Structure prediction request, 898 residues.
Amino acid sequence: MADLRIDFEGIKSPNPFWLASAPPTNSGAQIHRAFEAGWGGAVWKTIGAPVLNVSNRYGAWHSGRRRMLAINNVELISDRPLEINLKEIAEVKRAWPDRAVIVSAMVESKPEAWHEIIRRIEDTGADGIELNYGCPHGMSERGMGSAVGQVPEYCEQITRWVMDAAKIPVIVKLTPNITNIVMPARAAVAAGANALSLINTINSIVGVDLDTLELTPSIGGKGGHGGYAGPAVKPIALNMLSALGTDEMVSRSGLPISGMGGIATWEDAAQFLLLGASSLQVCTAVMHHGYRIIEDLCDGLSNWMDEKGFATITDVVGQSLHRVSEFKHFDLAFRAVARIDEAKCIQCNLCYVACNDTAHQCIDLIAPDGSVTQPYMYDVRSNGKQEATETRPQPQVREEDCVGCRLCYNVCPVAECIEMVEEPSGRESVTWNELTANRREVTEDWARMQEYRAQVGIEIH
Amino acid sequence: METHPALAEQLPPLSAHEAAVEADRCLFCYDAPCTHACPTHIDIPRFIKKIATKNLRGSAETIYTANLLGATCARVCPVQELCEGACVLGSEHKPIAIGRLQRYAMDYAKAKGIKPRAKALRASGRRIAVIGAGPAGLSCAGELALRGHAVTVFEKRELAGGLSTYGIIALREPVDVALDEAKMIESLGVELKTSVEFGKEITIEEARKQFDAIVMSVGLGATPALGIAGEEAIVDGLAYIEASKVGAANLHVGRNVVVVGAGNTAVDCATIARRLGAERVTMVYRRTQREMTCYEHEYHFALSEGIEFRFLSQPAGVILRDGKTAGLKCLRVELGEPDASGRPAPKAVAGSEFVIEADQIVKAVGQQKPSLASLLGLKTAKGYIAVSEDFETSVAGVYAVGDCIRSHGSASTVMAVEDGKLAAAAIERKLATAEVR
Prediction:
């Protein structure tokens, strides 16, 4: 069995899964239950300035039968009095010494306010502090949350105030609502933060009610942007995570990163680890299914690690980071083509229409007699399941024309029916960077480019 | 119309949630096999996606574009043999419930009064007579009306709808569905004259003077005679179904009922008997389960209703006791070489008489060929009205559609609807080249 324990800049937990600072960590009673279910840690729902909340605070994006592919919220930081939160934090930590108890905080942008809250959090015995620079709604209007995270200078200044006072590890939580996530991360590094975490929620409006023309959810007839999270944001989170991992300054700093943003399964978790996260935070999936999901998060991750020969979480962290590259470094001679497994194909023709209308027109429909045919060729008087199924053409990739775009692979509804097969292109490996360095004219002039293509045998139909 | 509760529509309508879930399952195939399999080629993925996007008006209109009698077809089509049978999800999963989704869209159309869209902006000045208000006639009449032609439908029965109204068990299609559909067709500008018999109240000569084209959609006749002793005691299957739908007062159901025949109508008769109190219902058929003409799913349905089967049995006479039916005398049958229909020829074994006790015998062994054909001097093929590719009979300007021309292939509502649609297009093409009178 793989060892799932982590030591995140001194914050220890029996597994890498922490509940993210959010409604699931709103109270001591909840966190007790979460720890009983097996969660490795919890980042307490942000404490700080007094707030009031509203009803209809959660919206969600559903797709077909899949509920809550993403959640959107305008809930603020904890609306429970500071004193109560601090008291419960102390109780939880006393009851669960082996679990990570981290406290998220957000106060007015004044050094005294930050010093005060840091001191009080440390008095609870908590293992660490997370600075909430990400909350995109409400708090930001009051100069907190993402209002800080979006300005690297503010981020650095406040982190310095905190680091002046803090004795326990400080994690700076970044907002994704920024053009370049690396900037605030560098600011946090410069200010001496102990760790980073990302992503917080993304600005979003879920939708508009087509009967009332109000936003959904409607808060007394009004609505506004709220924080977007859940499975749908995972690719954005993975990109931002890898952007930190591949940034020289951030990676050289050695600051560990707590990754979050759409983790719902152990597979998501493993991907975050592989791209450099060394602790993981989960919120939406728990809000959807409850604390019980921790069991399979650990079990699945452990089984996968065993299968792959990873003994510890540290062995996994960042293993795929060296694969993160840029277009200019990709091998332009790499070639893959789509291949349809006719035994598995159900002839829905979704690949055909996608390729034909929107990609490269390289899937043919092959009639049962072997000839290439066109859609809708049947006689209007032909009908019945027999005729419809027996005369149905089979989509087939014309490999010589396939550019390997992978669209058909993505639309195919049948598991392992379309495969992207690597085919030798017969060309020497070359990257755009190399091309630019060695044959600049090819990259700047279409006529030269055409000559180059003819020379190396690239034909784009 | 009041139907016995035991014959109330079998499948409940889908709820909005059920419809959405089912619609979401549809893969939205391109050039979909379900559409090919549908005789009217409804763009099924399109109407289903419109249900998924809650565009129910668009969904209903998509169905109407290809099939004006979508409400009937949603209920009576043998979807297992057509659209659903061809669904790409059928091989490893459950096919999409296309019939029930279509019914969902059509129920919405009915509730909201959504009608098919006109295909012509102005009246053509053409007058067309349609003889018979069954599915083929209504489809043809509706299609012609949408194209701007003045259509009059003559129906000899009191109610429109043909077999949809009179001949299909209510648990599959309630009478009101057929009548509402006829009303919808009327609302497209079709003049519907019921209780008018063609050949009597209006002659073909008169019709030819008054109309630019005549469409015969007269269906078929009564159940043929079995030619056995005591036949007069046997109840006609179509009359039996009709009574269960529109004449409950005249319906007598025995305690021990024998149904002769093994087609879909025979199954309907047996089901009615079973559901309306018969303790025992036995279907008697000359051949075996393999040769039955009812759809496979109908056979399984009959079994689930507790209906019994006596295969390889040929009726030889009705046993009467005190003038009342007491049983059906049968001969055992052996199957021989395939006959003209391609099925093994049944041969009654001499001296093998046996009696199946029954206090009511119902026969449902097909329908007689259209008698009107010979009356009007139309050429026939195997007794059915012979038509060209364009549904024109041997008499120019007289067209025929539906069961009365079905000399090959199996008769079905949806085929009749398609005939009506194709004939309407053909008639319009023909009239476009003729002068307006």
Observations:
- Chain B has 16 helices and 16 strands.
- The domain at 5-112 of chain B is CATH 1.10.1060.10 (Fumarate Reductase Iron-sulfur Protein; Chain B, domain 2).
- The first strand of chain B starts at residue 127 and ends at 131.
